[in-house]
């Protein structure tokens, strides 16, 4: 093999054993999978999932892997695709600031679908998930923030790599196959941020999964690719960054999942709204403001804010998930921002539409100087009807590693999500299985419980 970034990644994926993964990374991986299952179950009935499922079912060539919320099974690739879309449909899944994207919603469906097909254990799922995400994060460390700055949806870019890496790790493929699989995955990476606020945003996760798994499958049939697909002339780094890089990642020497962790969401919408929502909830529940006393709100955001929060007068729940105006209007009117607020009737309601008209957003000069970051720091200027002006700011939402959710919070979120679709007893039994995932001798019973 050629000495390259992909060789380093392949050696890491092939050589890393479950016992080599730091205990805190194992714990984080299990938490991420619990959160993913809840989001996937809650999202499985969304129109984008039903549409994707019909497309996938027509093309599936086997019935070996479960599709969340559907009675039948599909081949592993198409089942994983549908489950990725379900997990991302509500934009409630976890976030990585290393990628400014959503790694679990691509890694988990791949690991689970293949584990169900091949009878893999819970430990093997956790190993493949952690190693697959780590490879995507290491590649992102070498190519961010330029990839996001250039307009790419990073879940679609790094997600293809994560999917291929997870696939190769779960199947314990040889290093040569892994290198070629990652190289093909890199040649299929891509997704446009201009599709935020549409069905295609969650579809990006499904397409990343399908492309990553197909990349590995093609190599298994004999297709080869450049071992310098990352750093070579016109390679991944050049095309996504606009410049070549000779940097190398420290695979296995340190873990990004341990150093930077994941952010878990409390609100089912773009994380760019969450610091502002935290502020508003604090002010409302503290009695400082109410829907009747607020005349106007101006939101000062960091550079990424206007690029993600593109819908200023949303009319549908899909649009509302990417609207600062809707998020704050919902909190003012209902005192909360939950799945219950993301309905056609509420979003299009006269009171919500009127309240959104009082809210504006642009980039704050001081926050812009922080650079192209995903954590979404905000400054709010709230003008009250009596003329009083409140100026408040928040650099980080709850759910980030620095403001972590407790295990009880993750449990509550999972059960609230799962109960929307499955009976409470089944939700609690599924949670118990996931809490003890590393002891599961076979993943099939867990996946069957999601159908």
TrEMBL record:
<comment type="similarity">
    <text>Belongs to the PrpD family.</text>
</comment>
<dbReference type="InterPro" id="IPR045336">
    <property type="entry name" value="MmgE_PrpD_N"/>
</dbReference>
<dbReference type="InterPro" id="IPR005656">
    <property type="entry name" value="MmgE_PrpD"/>
</dbReference>
<dbReference type="InterPro" id="IPR036148">
    <property type="entry name" value="MmgE/PrpD_sf"/>
</dbReference>
<dbReference type="Pfam" id="PF19305">
    <property type="entry name" value="MmgE_PrpD_C"/>
</dbReference>
<dbReference type="InterPro" id="IPR042183">
    <property type="entry name" value="MmgE/PrpD_sf_1"/>
</dbReference>
<protein>
    <submittedName>
        <fullName>2-methylcitrate dehydratase PrpD</fullName>
    </submittedName>
</protein>
<dbReference type="InterPro" id="IPR045337">
    <property type="entry name" value="MmgE_PrpD_C"/>
</dbReference>
<dbReference type="Pfam" id="PF03972">
    <property type="entry name" value="MmgE_PrpD_N"/>
</dbReference>
<feature type="domain" description="MmgE/PrpD N-terminal">
    <location>
        <begin position="8"/>
        <end position="243"/>
    </location>
</feature>
<feature type="domain" description="MmgE/PrpD C-terminal">
    <location>
        <begin position="267"/>
        <end position="432"/>
    </location>
</feature>
<dbReference type="GO" id="GO:0016829">
    <property type="term" value="F:lyase activity"/>
</dbReference>
<dbReference type="InterPro" id="IPR042188">
    <property type="entry name" value="MmgE/PrpD_sf_2"/>
</dbReference>
């Amino acid at each position: 093999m050629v000495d390259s970034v992909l060789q380093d990644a392949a050696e890491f994926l092939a050589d890393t054993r479950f016992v080599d993964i730091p205990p805190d990374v194992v714990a984080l991986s299990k938490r991420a999978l619990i959160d993913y299952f809840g989001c996937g179950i809650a999202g499985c009935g969304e129109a984008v999932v039903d549409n994707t499922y019909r497309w996938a079912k027509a093309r599936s060539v086997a019935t070996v892997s479960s599709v969340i919320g559907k009675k039948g099974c599909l081949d592993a690739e198409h089942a994983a695709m549908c489950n990725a879309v379900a997990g991302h449909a509500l934009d409630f899944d976890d976030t990585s600031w290393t990628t400014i994207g959503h790694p679990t919603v691509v890694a988990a469906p791949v690991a689970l679908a293949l584990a169900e097909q091949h009878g893999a254990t819970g430990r093997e799922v956790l190993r493949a998930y952690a190693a697959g995400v780590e490879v995507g994060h290491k590649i992102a460390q070498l190519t961010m923030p330029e990839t996001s700055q250039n307009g790419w949806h990073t879940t679609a870019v790094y997600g293809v790599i994560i999917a291929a890496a997870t696939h190769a790790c779960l199947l314990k493929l040889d290093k040569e196959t892994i290198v070629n699989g990652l190289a093909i995955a890199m040649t299929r990476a891509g997704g446009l941020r201009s599709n935020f606020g549409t069905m295609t945003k969650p579809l990006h996760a499904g397409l990343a999964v399908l492309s990553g798994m197909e990349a590995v499958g093609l190599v298994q049939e004999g297709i080869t690719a450049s071992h310098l697909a990352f750093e070579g002339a016109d390679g991944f780094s050049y095309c996504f960054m606009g410049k070549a890089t000779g940097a190398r990642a420290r695979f296995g020497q340190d873990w990004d999942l341990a150093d930077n962790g994941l952010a878990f969401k409390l609100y089912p919408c773009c994380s760019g709204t969450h610091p502002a929502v935290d502020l508003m909830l604090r002010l409302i529940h503290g009695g400082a403001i109410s829907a009747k006393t607020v005349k106007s709100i101006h939101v000062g955001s960091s550079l990424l804010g206007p690029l993600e929060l593109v819908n200023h007068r949303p009319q549908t729940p899909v649009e509302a998930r990417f609207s600062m105006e809707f998020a704050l209007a919902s909190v003012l009117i209902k005192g909360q921002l939950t799945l219950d607020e993301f309905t056609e009737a509420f979003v299009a309601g006269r009171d919500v539409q009127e309240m959104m008209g009082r809210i504006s957003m642009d980039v704050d000069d001081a926050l812009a100087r922080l650079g192209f970051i995903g954590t979404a720091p905000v400054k709010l200027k709230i003008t009250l009807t009596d003329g009083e002006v409140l100026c408040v700011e928040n650099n980080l939402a709850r759910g980030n590693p620095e403001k972590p959710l407790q295990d009880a919070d993750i449990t509550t979120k999972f059960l609230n999500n799962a109960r929307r679709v499955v009976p409470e007893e089944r939700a609690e039994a599924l949670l118990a299985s996931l809490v003890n995932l590393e002891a599961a001798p076979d993943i099939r019973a867990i996946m069957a419980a999601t159908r």
